Amino acid sequence: MGNSSVAKDHPWEYLAASALAATLNYPLWRASAVGQSGFVVSPILIAGRWSVPPSWSTYVYAFLPPYKGGLATVLGMTWARAAIFWGSDYGRMSLRKHDYPSSVAAVVPPLIVSTAVQCINMPLVRATITLQNPQCEHNFPNVPESMLHVYRTHGISGLWHGTSAGILKTVPKYCTAVVVKDVMEDALPPARTPSENLWRSACKSVVAGVAGAALTNPFDVIRNEMFKSNLDLIQTIQHLKNAAEGWSFMSRGLGKNLVAVAIPLSCTIFLTDALIQWSSNSSTVSHSATLRKPQVEDRDERRRPQSVVKESKEKSERR
Predict the structure, then answer these.
(1) What confidence tens digit (pLDDT) does each residue in 241-299 have?
(2) What interhelical angle do 163-187 and 217-229 show, nearest 10?
(3) 1 with 181: CB under 8 angstroms?
(4) Gyration radius from the chain CA atoms
(5) Are 261 and 206 in contact (CB under 8 A)?
(6) 51 beta partners
(7) Cβ contact 277:194 at 8 Å
């Protein structure tokens, strides 16, 4: 994961890694959405007897069915992350080839791609987060019903309500993750073996994921509160300040966000590197086998009796 040639040659690896990371981490995203939105989870009993501690109830709820909007959430995150990471890697090296400064090449591609992705995905994001409210009086069964309710209640613009906070959250998160990933790529010593390359990728992925998640938590809180209250950006910030008696709202759900955002980001980066490495190794082995095959056939032909070889050639000529 790191240059335009790799990005150009391996788009499906980016998509597959994003899909796998989104699927594995869906419950963590659900826990983060519930925690940052301030949704209330009812007490959960295990086997009807043991009560789950309140500090763990959100995580337990996130893993329990029904998984409303699960497929839509996974598909939305899949194409979004694949587009951002692929577009950032391809764009960065393309700009470098045209002699743009490294800082411009590092920041501009994720800035443009993540902004576009956020605007396109916004109705889906609002609908899927609304579905996660366990106390929702409407009890929407699926994403289309949730979108339809928003449209009927707030009009077409309501589907994009919270886009400003979403951009303030998504763009810095992915710009930070991509820039940190690229810095780590240049700073870490070159790998000499495939296993060393995976360890190198793991270090790069973890640092990039944590940095991207920690720096943008306040914008997650603001965006989710805008979904819940339908207030504008300034009113939402003022409401959160009053409710929390200060700026402490900025850390609301931080622990869950570090888990729900840092892990998927790190997984996406690491899995992309791993799939690209596996694909490249498979192609190398296949190419080597193809090169060796004619040599083996020539050697086998020399071992065959001359009469058989002559007969085979005559048959080939007649055909």
Answers:
(1) 888 767 888 877 777 777 778 898 999 999 999 999 898 888 766 655 665 655 555 55
(2) 160
(3) yes
(4) 26
(5) no
(6) 45
(7) yes
Gap between the Cα atoms of 187 and 152, Å rounded: 52
Q: How far apart are the first and last CA of the chain?
A: 50
CA 7 to chain centre: 16
Calpha distance 171→163 (Å, rounded)? 11
Quick check: 240 and 168 in contact, CB under 8 A?
A: no
pLDDT tens for each residue of 143-170: 999 999 999 999 999 999 888 878 877 8
Q: How far apart (Å, rounded) are the C-alpha atoms in residues 217 and 159? A: 22
Beta bridge partners of residue 50, listed in sequence order: 46
Determine which of 85-94, 188-197, 253-262 has the lowest per-residue pLDDT on average.
253-262
The closest alpha carbon to 174, from 253, 96, 264, 103, belongs to 264
Give the helix/strand (H/E) hosting 210. helix 194-214
pLDDT of residue 218: 84
Q: What is the DSSP letter of 250?
A: G
d(CA 288, CA 9): 19
Q: Angle, to 10 degrees, between the axis of helix 194-214 and the axis of helix 163-187?
A: 150
Whole-number Cα distances in Å, 117 to 110, 151, 192: 10, 21, 36
Q: Which residues of 49-60 are buried (b: 16+ CB within 10 A; e: fewer)?
A: eeebeeeebbbe
Higher pLDDT, 319 or 203: 203
196 closest CA partner among 303, 140, 204, 234? 204
Highest mean predicted confidence (pLDDT) among 7-11, 77-81, 239-243 = 77-81
Task: Enter the DSSP assignment of 248.
Answer: G
Cα–Cα dist 306/226, whole Å? 84
Contact 148, 124 (CB under 8 A): no
- Backbone φ/ψ region at 101: left (φ over 0), alpha (ψ -120 to 50), beta: beta
**For the chain, what is the mean pLDDT?**
84
Rounded to whole angstroms, the Cα distance separating 127 from 231 reads 17
